[in-house]
Write a structure and sequence with these properties.
Length: about 450
């Protein structure tokens, strides 16, 4: 009888993997998942009616005044100029940025904690998510925002591991990338806010809790950055980059204004108007501005998903839903709560950084009165996946059988959930029965949950 070889997991995990090779493999898998039949569903899908169209108008020299800064259109433009005025040209740039995100998460986790297997685990968790997969298969712009913001944070952490001129060079790149994130959409400012809040925490620890300095880890290096450098790298440079990326737009529209300055001010006022107009703000909560609007507090449990595409061919449905992997999301949210409670009794700088990154990209959404959508949670989601990776890795390292059993069970549940929901992310054919089996929450059945 053929005997299968036994795998000693403890021995295997004691090995130190080649992190760059692992990150490259995860990137290639992520990219393949995004490029697979990327043109299967014809343009436009959901907000593709906006962003590729706006990009085409830039190419024609007549840019539309719309609700976001222009940088995302320049990125889509690279795809159009390279691959043509078609689904590939509109969608491939987003797919590439979406595929890069897990590599950036791996880098952040490794720079924070220095554990290769933990960093790889976080990258693998990203591969199982559905919202990022859907968002990065169409000509949308949220993946640009998240990738650029995470890249800025990664360069910041790498810079803290170095000193001298190399540190200042990295901090310059960090500030530009975080400004670039805000140049996609203003909510990209969450990554700069993360930097401010983490720096403030370090200041508090050094000033009033010196016994905790040794628990700060690499972020303790923020205390060595002089105040003038903060003003330059995390205030002045981001403002300069934000203004510079408007230059092409201003050059094309300046004929209607007395000066470039007046044109720039007018564009910023227009963005404010865009996000406070009657199309996105409603005074009647029973009549939302859009059928897929959802309150900010519902995102962490994925109470309301967004339908991007639906086609019925008899009893066969083709649907694309912007929804996450529910098991992944619920475990990630539970990990945020667990690490927050744990932080009250045992301080850890790396965990504090993750929790601050999550909060800085989530809590500000309490303020807007406009219609909001699940995809506004994407920046915060990356930090909650880091939190889940930390919890799973910590449970495994404790070495008890029941704890490792929890880790294995959780990993299996996440992967099974991913496979089960893939048809809703790729727009694969499902019978009506198979479709409704995946719609776990119908309207008015379970509080505010609604997946239809």
């Amino acid at each position: 009888m053929l005997r299968l070889p036994q795998i000693n997991l403890k021995w295997a995990l004691s090995l130190q993997p080649n992190l760059p090779v692992a990150a490259l493999l995860i990137f290639l898998i992520s990219l393949a998942m995004r490029l697979w039949q990327i043109n299967q569903i014809p343009y436009p899908v959901f907000d593709e009616v906006y962003f590729p169209k706006y990009t085409e108008e830039y190419l024609e020299g007549k840019p539309t005044w719309e609700g976001h800064p222009p940088l995302s259109k320049f990125l889509i433009m690279l795809g159009i100029l390279t691959l043509g005025h078609n689904e590939f040209g509109y969608r491939v740039p987003t797919a590439i940025f979406g595929a890069i995100i897990p590599v950036l998460m791996i880098g952040i986790c490794y720079q924070l904690i220095g554990k290769k297997w933990l960093a790889i685990l976080v990258g693998c968790l990203y591969l199982t998510d559905g919202l990022f997969l859907v968002e990065s298969r169409y000509g949308l712009i949220n993946c640009f925002l998240v990738a650029l913001g995470l890249a800025g944070q990664l360069l910041l952490l790498v810079g803290l591991h170095h000193s001298g001129k190399y540190r200042w060079f990295l901090l310059t790149g960090s500030s530009i990338l975080m400004s670039a994130s805000a140049s996609i959409k203003w909510n990209g400012l969450g990554f700069l806010l993360t930097t401010y809040l983490v720096s403030f925490l370090v200041f508090i620890i050094f000033r009033w809790f010196p016994k905790q300095i040794e628990n700060l880890g690499v972020i303790a290096e923020l205390n060595k950055i002089p105040f003038w450098a903060y003003l330059i790298y995390f205030f002045l440079i981001p403002i300069i980059f934000y203004i510079v990326q408007w230059i092409p737009h201003l050059m094309l529209s300046n004929g209607n204004f007395s000066s470039p300055i007046s044109a720039f001010i007018a564009t910023q006022k227009h963005i404010l108007w865009w996000h406070n107009g009657s199309d996105v703000v409603t005074t009647d909560p029973t009549k939302p501005a859009h059928p897929y609007c959802s309150p900010w507090y519902s995102w962490a449990v994925m109470a309301r998903v967004v339908g991007y595409y639906f086609k019925a061919d008899g009893d066969t449905y083709y649907t694309v839903d912007a929804m996450g992997n529910p098991i992944l999301w619920w475990l990630a949210t539970a990990s945020i709560l667990y690490l927050s409670a744990r932080g009250l009794t045992k301080f850890n700088g790396a965990i504090a950084y993750v929790l601050i990154g999550y909060s800085a990209n989530y809590v500000p959404w309490m303020l807007p009165s406009r219609c909001l959508f699940l995809y506004h949670y994407m920046s915060a989601l990356t930090f909650s996946m880091m939190a889940l990776g930390i919890v799973l890795y910590s449970l495994w390292q404790r070495g008890k059988g029941w704890q490792r059993g929890l880790v294995i069970s959780g990993a299996i549940a996440i992967v099974v959930s991913q496979i089960y929901f893939l048809p809703l992310w790729y727009g694969l054919p499902l019978s009506s029965r198979e479709f409704y089996q995946r719609i776990w929450f119908m309207p008015n059945q379970f509080g505010g949950f609604n997946w239809i």
